Amino acid sequence: MIQPNTLKTLQSYNGSLFPILSVYLGSDTLQAPTREYLLTQLHSLTHNLTADQKTMFKRDIKKIEEYINSYTPSYRGLVFFSAGNKLWQALNLEFYMPASLTVDNSPNTEALAKSLHSHSKYLVLLVDREKAKMFTVEQGEIAEQAEYIGDTVSRPAKASSRDGTDTQPDINSRRSDMLLKQHIVEVTKAVTKFVKAADISFVIVGGHNEMFKKVAEALPANLRSKTVLGLVTDINQPLSTILRESKKLAASVK
């Protein structure tokens, strides 16, 4: 995750007395680009350098190539800022930015700053009849996480009358509904403690279909007023799997 102080440090090089190479690489697909793709993209961009610039940044380009060759593809993009022994910064991006290469006395951070602002934090809330898991995602990575464990709310079993016919609704069903409502209330209390709504751009509610509407309607007003999306998933899956599913859904919002 790119921290605000990293961007501030880069911006402190604005108006330097030496030229800075800024390189953005990546793919507009949801899949992480391969090393070969990134190297090909880099070499294509370097064709736009003048002969003098190619000589000046020969070692910088070599350093970028070495970084890519040792990199395990897991991000949608990479960004490099390099100026010999005066500046070196490599950043991973979980969102797409167009490929570009610039040489200037200031690092090309303007587009990056705008993208970081637009890819703000969102909340993933996973709820079943026993528990709730919640985590925030910022720049494609889990920022904070928490879990709420309540009393298990079983599904209502069908009760039968003396003649063998089903009797619905019955007292078990009403009790189960009441316990489920209380469970969701407690979940929303846990969510309120966990997250500051002002920091959240939208909400993803995950679990089974039956829970989406109930949970969404019970959210605090300051979260309910934001875009709320439903994600059909088994909340007992590893968080890494659910994170990957949430990012595909989040891409439709952005």
CATH class value of the largest domain: Alpha Beta
Number of strands: 11
Helix/sheet category: alpha+beta
Q: List the helices and strands in order.
A: HEHHHEEEHEEEEEHEHHEH
> What is the overall shape?
elongated
CATH architecture of the largest domain: 2-Layer Sandwich
Q: What name goes with the CATH superfamily of the largest domain? A: eRF1 domain 2
How many domains would you count in the coordinates? 2
Number of helices: 9
Looking at the structure, the CATH topology of the largest domain is: Nucleotidyltransferase, domain 5
Indicate the percent of residues in helices.
Answer: 25-40%
Ends: how far apart? Answer: 18 Å
Biggest β-sheet, characterized?
5 strands, mixed
Low-confidence stretches: none
Provide the spatial order of strands within the biggest beta sheet: 7-6-5-10-11
Give the DSSP E fraction (strand runs of 2 or more residues): 15-25%
